[in-house]
Amino acid sequence: MAWWRGADLSFLGDKPNLRRLRLDGRPARLQLDGIEACTALTSLEVLDYRFPTLAPLRKLTRMKAMLVSGPRRLPADNDLDLRDLSAMQDLRSLRLIAAGMIRSLHPITALPKLRDLRLNEVTIGDGDLSPLFRLPSWAEVVPPIRLLDDPARYSHTIAELRPLTQRR
Q: Is there a domain that residue 3 lies in?
């Protein structure tokens, strides 16, 4: 859905057979409320929206691919808790680009089928980047090429993250 202008996703209603959803809009804020009724979703792309929480995604257990590419012009005033994705045991691809504030990367280690993780232009709340090194060697990890806040508060430098891109 291109250039959609609603405040949340309640307009979707009960869509138990919807498998793919792409929201492509103008730089804006969006509540994900309403998406929880789309229990068959396997692919979600959200472009140019900033949302405050991932909590409405908790029941989307069939998700395989998720891309969140937020608006660079809006402040990172959200708090994305990746624990909200823990029921997505089939999640293979997670791409968070300009998605704002991610509380912690620790929950990604509990996603057994994750094969593609890309992070860029995000802030990691706890500053701990070590979970990136605990992913299986066959997982393709593209770590941040720059950090949006003080690099000194992170557990690893950008240079220390580079070997992650050469593991395959």
A: no
Res. 160: pLDDT tops 60? yes
Which CATH number belongs to the domain containing residue 21 in this structure?
A: 3.80.10.10
Q: Are 99 and 80 in contact (CB under 8 A)?
A: yes
Q: Which residues fall within 8 angstroms of residue 136, CB to CB, at 6 or more apart?
A: none
Q: Which residue has the higher pLDDT, 139 or 64?
A: 64
With CA atoms as reference, report the closest residue to 77 among 36, 128, 32, 125.
125
Give the tokens for residue 135. 């992913």
State pTM to two decimals: 0.92
Number of structural domains in the chain: 1
DSSP state of 7: S
Query: Per residue in 54-113, pLDDT tens?
Result: 999 999 999 999 999 999 888 888 999 999 999 999 999 999 999 999 999 999 999 999
The single residue listed with the structure tokens 């929950």 is 107
Range of the domain at 67: 10-163
Considering the domain boundaries, does residue 168 fall inside one? no
Answer left, alpha or beta for residue 44, where phi above 0 means left and psi between -120 and 50 means alpha.
beta
Give yes or no for residue 42 having a pLDDT over 80.
Answer: yes
Count of CB atoms situated within 10 Å of the CB of 70: 25
